[in-house]
Amino acid sequence: MANLQHLTTEYQNRMNAVFKYIDTHLNTALTLEVVAEIAIYSPYHFHRIFKVITGEPLTVYINRRRLEKAAADLMHKPDIAITELALQYGFSSNSSFTRAFKKFYGVSPSTFRVELPGKFSKIRQPKSKNGQPNFLFERYLWSIQELKNWIDMNAHITTVELPELQIAYVTAIGHTKVKEAYQQLIHWATPRELMQQPETKMITVYHDSFKVTDPDKVRISAGIKVPKNTKTEGAVATTTLPANKYIKGCFTITLAEFEKAWSSLFIWMNEKGYKKADANPFEIYHNDFRTHPEQKCIVDLYIPIQKAI
């Protein structure tokens, strides 16, 4: 297994294809054989590599993704039926989905929907004596009104239509791995003179929400904007962020204020009656915070939203 750890860069691009496939086929039978074929590996070889990269066996990862996606839908899609969610994410029945959800989050889907949106966060859930999360309904770190006041003073918010954005990226599994992912990306981009281009922007894409996913399992893309048809290699891959309508929040904030900024922006979205689209939120950075006199980031936060019918 130790030898595999030195080869994760070689395997990462195939794993990126696997992550995308799983996310778009959660309602199907995602067997080891089917997913291994996407990675172009034998099931035995793929199983070992996948566990090294993600820290989880394939079946555990798939089950977690199904439950987390369902939890996100419960927060952002108040009209969707729980029975529909069960079928959408590959569960054989409403009862099997409810049992799995309650085991994972500590509450039923219906309770989660009613009591937890806006309050629930995997970041700050305390542990019980047996090491499992203790899902008591904790008090907000900031009240909703405080967050609304804070965003009024610290952000300029608009809705914008963005064209497709082509990015080169390195995948990070867990929030502590983002710095390493950016180092890999910059090491690749610098000799290609991509970092010197004025249109180059660093972009962080969040495939998971910290409200429903443990921080050490959140999948994040550390990326930069690149021209179309840019060729990549090793752990660096390319993807396209879709053309869409977005809520755009412009901030000048410290690193410690990012969670507050995201929470506030989602509250603003709900207050204004917008609904989140299925695409991923992301950040675009406009400076190196280390050169800012107050160590602040000049950053735009984007939440994809559904267009009015």
Your description of this structure?
This protein has 309 residues and is α+β, with helices and mostly antiparallel strands. It folds into 2 domains: 2-115, Arc Repressor Mutant, subunit A, CATH 1.10.10; 155-305, Multidrug-efflux Transporter 1 Regulator Bmrr, Chain A (Alpha-Beta Barrel). It has helices at residues 2-5, 8-24, 32-39, 43-54, 58-76, 82-88, 94-105, 109-115, 144-154, 178-189, 258-271, and strands at residues 155-162, 165-173, 202-206, 219-225, 237-241, 244-253, 282-285, 297-305. It has an 8-stranded antiparallel beta sheet, with helices on both faces. The protein is globular.
Q: What's the structural domain tally?
A: 2
Number of β-strand runs: 8
String of helices and strands: HHHHHHHHHEEHEEEEHEE
Largest sheet: 8 strands, antiparallel
Question: Which class of secondary structure composition applies to the elements?
Answer: alpha+beta
CATH topology descriptor of the largest domain: Multidrug-efflux Transporter 1 Regulator Bmrr, Chain A
Termini Cα gap:
52 Å
Strand arrangement in the largest pleated sheet:
1-6-8-7-3-4-2-5
Mean pLDDT: 86
Shape: globular
Number of alpha- plus pi-helical segments:
11
Which CATH-level-2 architecture of the largest domain?
Alpha-Beta Barrel
Pfam families: GyrI-like (PF06445), HTH_18 (PF12833)
Protein name: AraC family transcriptional regulator
Organism: Neptunitalea lumnitzerae
Keywords: DNA-binding, Transcription, Transcription regulation
